[in-house]
Amino acid sequence: MPTERAVNPIAGGSLLAEQAYEELKGAVLTNRLRPGDALSVPALAAQMGISRSPVREAVQRLIHDGLATHVPHRGAVVATVDVEDVRQLYVVRAVMEGLAARLATERLDATKVAELRELLEEHERVVAAGEDEQRHIEMDVAYHRLIREVADNPHLTAALDTIQGKAHLALHSLWRSPDAPRLALEEHRRIFEAMTSGDTDAADRAAREHIDRLRIRLAQTVASGPEPGEGPSSVRAVP
Amino acid sequence: MPTERAVNPIAGGSLLAEQAYEELKGAVLTNRLRPGDALSVPALAAQMGISRSPVREAVQRLIHDGLATHVPHRGAVVATVDVEDVRQLYVVRAVMEGLAARLATERLDATKVAELRELLEEHERVVAAGEDEQRHIEMDVAYHRLIREVADNPHLTAALDTIQGKAHLALHSLWRSPDAPRLALEEHRRIFEAMTSGDTDAADRAAREHIDRLRIRLAQTVASGPEPGEGPSSVRAVP
DNA sequence: CCGGTGAATATTGCATGCAACATAGGGTCA
DNA sequence: TGACCCTATGTTGCATGCAATATTCACCGG
């Protein structure tokens, strides 16, 4: 077991627990900590250079978010998402993104339209340049996040953040389709068109269908390429 | 300030933090702790007869659930839900209960139908007997919870639990309509009919409309009778 | 009578100690 | 060689200590 630490030391300002949480979440979401990896509170505390209290708190928040699971007397481990999990995740996410798009359509103004267009164009560049998967996921997350922000419903935002966090985690293990970014971008554009035309029903439908298609493509990808067997914390690179 | 404790001592078995969380949540949801009440970790720890660590953890979970808010350097206080909060809450809840009903319809079997009918009949007795509000809320919560259970989607369940928790909290402050229980029961029956007839669309619609009507009735109640003034736990009235 | 100032108070958040406990691994015995 | 036991290690979860800090209340001056 290499001493290669998956998390970085904490600066040491205020709210160590918060910083530890962000660091851990980042490590999980960028796949530096992989599903199945152990989250030992003492070990992480040592690596971050802080005591166990804030780390313990951070790990528990991760568990609460569904990004880690608690194995009795074995500590916490980064959550493993199976195909069925993802399916159920996306069924829920579809109706919530639909609602978000609907609400956002009602509250859209010129500023927000510009921001959305901006994001779409940047996403376009990323896709055109064939940049890395990580970057694409970031754009995808950012786009949906902005829609939520426009929708301006904190309860919806909170629920969707949790759902999307788990989905984000799943993408690392499951998403292997090379033209997925292009398709996603296309569907993002369709949502944009519906929203800017003021058609709430169409926006709702477009967002729901986007997530539904994502779910279907994910299922197909998994079905075709059953995933090279990879142990918890082994060394494989993302293809 | 009366020494009247709002929370009970903890038995002392295993997982004190969990027990403390349940105790606190119960106190909040049954209105023994009211919106605005302070949640002092040292005080609660003393009342429960345990140390601060598990209590701190419990309070943080409450905050994460939206049942409490963190006021800087003043400790945590039981969350205050205003009318707008409730409206936004129910907008989200409507689509999620709709999805739950839809999924439940697809997975319904004879056993679950019997359980649902059982609950409805008990609810009927409660309404007929004109029992207390608390009991009615319990029935309402139980009914929706059972639908979720049948729907069998853990992510949907988790999200809805959080949403319903906040809604539950809101009801104490806002629900003053005497015939609300009767109307709710009636709408529960309608959802039941749609589900047992196997019509997923109708079930979805019925559940969504139920929550929407709930939201509208709540808004009307609040608009007509602005609430008998009752302050946090002491003197102030809600502005 | 009222406003301002200072000290006492109570809070949080982090660090650390410690007992209980399950697991893993090695060594022993049949 | 294979199964079993027993110890060593790692973990959790709770208790407690402690510094930093904002609030509150009383008291004093105007």
From TrEMBL, chains A, B:
Residues 14-81 form the HTH gntR-type domain. GO terms for molecular function: DNA binding; DNA-binding transcription factor activity. Keywords: DNA-binding, Transcription, Transcription regulation. Residues 220-239 are annotated as: Disordered. This is GntR family transcriptional regulator. It comes from Streptomyces coryli.
